[in-house]
């Protein structure tokens, strides 16, 4: 069996090793996520120095090792120099890379993830540096597509409760829809309020029934919940029961066993993580498209809200924080201060 193999991959993460080496985490088409040592790559004149940088695509020859594989040859196929020239683009690229690191599998081909990640890096690089909202829009677009590829996309076209389609109402300036991270997407506030009222009524009915049972006042006016019809008291015809009641002085009345037990699966009232305006929902609904559409009236703060929603949702689904998101916050806070 050969101790070397070839792969095409993009560098997602680097870590110093010893005095002159690096450990590079690479997403490859053929083998998924691999970690390999780039020997001597931190030396000034190393041939692997530039080739082991972030977001460099290489054709690699790798030697298998006991604990870590080793890069023996690397030929650069593509770089994204425009990302390093803009802090917002670089932060957005690292943000997407963190999600890829969470989703990628090892020892399995990852062609779709590899192609999708490279496509969104290319789009980010092409965004004008004078257009901060464009960076945010492409970042949100990339996050949504990566979540969709992993089967984790939030539901934004229909209500998670009623399963009815949601259409933003721009004629009402106060129109809103809920977004529930635990429920997995958008929730109609009207449907949630109806469910809340139904649950309140059911609780009141259940409490009334329990109180009547405790006082022995159940009759035709207080039917057993979920029974097909009320249970009626009748006199017992059992001679043994009659003898027993005569000796004890109690009534021989008992209940007909005509009630049915009905199991009711109560629908949970979802927690609303945030509320979306008509514009914010519109932007979210368009993220599933292959290309970003220009939407009239969309402003920077709308894209900021959408990114925040997707960030919280992705962190919940992936079970870990996205550290590069703090760079996005810093960049756009500084941008806002500069334009005020």
TrEMBL record:
Protein known as: DNA repair protein RecO
Pfam families noted in UniProt: RecO_C, RecO_N
Stated family: Belongs to the RecO family.
One Gene Ontology cellular component annotation held by this UniProt entry: bacterial nucleoid
Protein keywords: DNA damage, DNA recombination, DNA repair
Record carries keyword Ribosomal protein: no
GO terms under biological process: DNA recombination; double-strand break repair
Function in brief: Involved in DNA repair and RecF pathway recombination.
Gene: recO
DNA replication/recombination mediator RecO N-terminal domain boundaries: 1-80
Species, as recorded: Nostoc punctiforme NIES-2108
Signal peptide annotation: none
Region (Disordered): 197-216
Coiled-coil region: none
């Amino acid at each position: 069996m050969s101790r070397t193999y070839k792969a095409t991959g993009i560098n997602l993460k680097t870590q110093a090793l010893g005095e002159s080496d690096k450990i590079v985490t690479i997403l490859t088409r053929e083998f998924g996520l691999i970690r390999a040592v780039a020997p001597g790559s931190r030396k000034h004149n190393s041939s692997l120095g530039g080739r082991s940088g972030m977001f460099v695509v290489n054709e690699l020859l790798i030697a298998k090792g006991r604990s870590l594989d080793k890069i023996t040859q690397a030929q650069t196929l593509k770089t994204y120099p425009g990302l390093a020239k803009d802090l917002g683009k670089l932060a957005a690229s690292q943000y997407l890379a963190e999600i890829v690191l969470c989703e990628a599998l090892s020892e399995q081909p990852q062609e779709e993830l590899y192609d999708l990640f490279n496509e969104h890096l290319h789009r980010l690089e092409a965004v004008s540096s004078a257009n901060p909202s464009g960076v945010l829009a492409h970042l949100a677009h990339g996050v949504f597509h990566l979540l969709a590829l992993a089967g984790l996309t939030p539901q934004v076209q229909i209500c998670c409760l009623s399963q009815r389609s949601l259409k933003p109402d721009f004629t009402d300036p106060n129109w809103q829809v809920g977004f529930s991270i635990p429920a997995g997407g958008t929730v109609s506030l009207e449907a949630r309020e109806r469910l809340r009222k139904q649950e309140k009524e059911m609780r009141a009915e259940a409490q009334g029934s329990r109180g009547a049972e405790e006082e022995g006042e159940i009759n035709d006016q207080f039917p057993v919940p979920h029974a097909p019809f009320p249970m009626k008291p009748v006199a017992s015809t059992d001679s043994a029961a009659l003898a027993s009641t005569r000796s004890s002085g109690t009534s021989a009345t008992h209940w007909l066993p005509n009630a049915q037990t009905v199991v009711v699966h109560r629908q949970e009232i979802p927690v609303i993580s945030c509320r979306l305006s008509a514009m914010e929902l519109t932007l979210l609904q368009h993220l599933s498209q292959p290309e970003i559409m220009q939407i009239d009236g969309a402003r920077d703060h709308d894209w900021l809200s959408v990114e925040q929603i997707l960030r919280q949702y992705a962190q919940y689904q992936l079970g870990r924080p996205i550290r590069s998101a703090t760079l996005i916050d810093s960049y756009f806070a500084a941008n806002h201060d500069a334009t005020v």
